[in-house]
Amino acid sequence: MRKDITVIKIVLGFLLLLFSLPLFAQDSNLDPDQLVDNHKQTTPDSAKYFIGSLATVCGKVESTKMLKNGTTFLNFGKPYPDQTISVVIDSSVAPTAAYSVTLMGKNVCITGRILNRKGIPEIKVKSKNQLRFPE
């Protein structure tokens, strides 16, 4: 009898783990091309409260930088190194230095998972669909 209860506990624990895995893996396969409007929208100054969340951050680009490998950084809130959030744009999305220059001082909305990079919120952009340019 006692052995049967142990087996039942093990089976139930395994089933619980099996059915809870999709809950944890749900956001890890985020496809920027399939983003929907059911996420939070915030400002650069408030982005720190949304670390780990899928959100749209809208604000004015205060400074930009493009690395030699083509990766572009947009800084919001204040210019680097005092920015309130950084956006890292993959070189496939921002292929030229002119791209970062044209965004300087513009209002831009970025959608993605807000990460914590050395105490500063950050969004990584891997698709043009993550960017919006409100007028």
Give the CA-based shape.
Answer: elongated
Question: In terms of per-residue confidence, which ranges show pLDDT below 50 for 5 or more consecutive residues?
Answer: 20-36
Q: Could you name the CATH class?
A: Mainly Beta
Q: Quick one: biggest sheet?
A: 8 strands, mixed
Report the helical percentage. 10-25%
How many domain units? 1
Output the keywords:
single chain; 135 residues; alpha+beta; OB fold (Dihydrolipoamide Acetyltransferase, E2P); eight-stranded mixed sheet; 2 helices; 23% helix; 33% strand; elongated
Q: Topology of this protein?
A:
Layout: H1 2-25, E1 40-42, E2 54-66, E3 72-76, E4 85-89, H2 97-103, E5 107-113, E6 115-117, E7 120-125, E8 131-132
Parallel strand pairs: 1-2, 4-7
Antiparallel strand pairs: 2-3, 2-5, 3-4, 5-8, 6-7
